[in-house]
Structure of Chromate transporter:
Amino acid sequence: MEKNKNKGSLWELFLVSSKLGLTSFGGPIAHLGYFFDEYVKKRKWISEKNYAELVALCQFLPGPASSQVGIGIGVMRARVIGGIVSFIGFTLPSVIALTLFAMMLKDIDINNAGWIHGLKIVAVAVIAQAIFGMAGKLAPDLKRKAIVLGGLVVTLLWQTAYSQIAVILISAIIGLFYYNKQKVSDEEEDFQFPLSRRFGAICLTLFFILLITLPIMKNVVTSPWFGIFDSFYRSGSLVFGGGHVVLPLLEKEFVPEGLVSKETFLAGYGATQAVPGPLFTFGAYLGAVMKGWTGGLLAAFAIFLPAFLLVFGTLPFWNLVRRHPKIKGALTGVNAAVVGILISAFYDPVWTSSILKPADFVVAALLFSLLMYWKLSPWIVVVIGGVGGILFL
């Protein structure tokens, strides 16, 4: 009887997830709150305990945590196809909105547009807020603050495609040695998902095969479409700590190569704050800027594909992983490093391209205060930033 109670129609799943995709403003932490109200309290599709376990798993994995939680709930309702339907409902509204925005920008001289400069300053305020929140939670002690500083120094002074990967790996090793005493009570219940370990192993294998072979094949396959897929897939595979951290990875993939200008890049990041849904849909915007709406769809598929493979791959093994203190210790180090990577991205390209004169700093301080202390929704701050850019900048 319990198994039947958890099943639902795909249409119902799509409608509920679409409603969340149209109304979930405020970033991944806010999304998890919306999910809790809808899936746990209102519909009782998942218990509070199992929801907390699912959130813990998705925080453990690289990728967009809120999207991965939505995928996991879809899997619990209707297996793999349910995870896909839940993801489409939650993600499609913002993909469409940002693709249309990218197409609109092609006919506008954004270099001298005041509202675009305002959106760039919005990005300063939003990322500064994210840094404050993440630093307090992920780096509360001196050792983790040292990891933050190391990640900042390395990624800012060694700006290559491999610096973030090196920082994440080194931080995981440090966490493995210094934070390996975390334990899970033996009394906790197992967390069950309707996926086999064989299916999970296949998904994890595919994840690593693509991550390793795509950069190698990129040197052989000359198609720009293949290069776009590779860049977005790797970016989606290496993001720990939430959607804001995807910024430095994507910036280093496309801006130095001249595929996307800094102004266009930061304008899109600002616009992403104004739409509901996951921050990873910023990839759809970049793809549409480079290759039109088909590029937007390809970029969205590529940047979210690792999230699917990791959720499908780890769900069957989660009961083993969550009880392993060394793995949890490594993740502790990685999470601290993410803060340093985000601060590095905050300085370059966000700060250096947006704060050019005292008036810019004043507007950024105002927007930051509205977010941090007055707790205004990000979409309201985006509107204020855009209007302020037209009137004052």
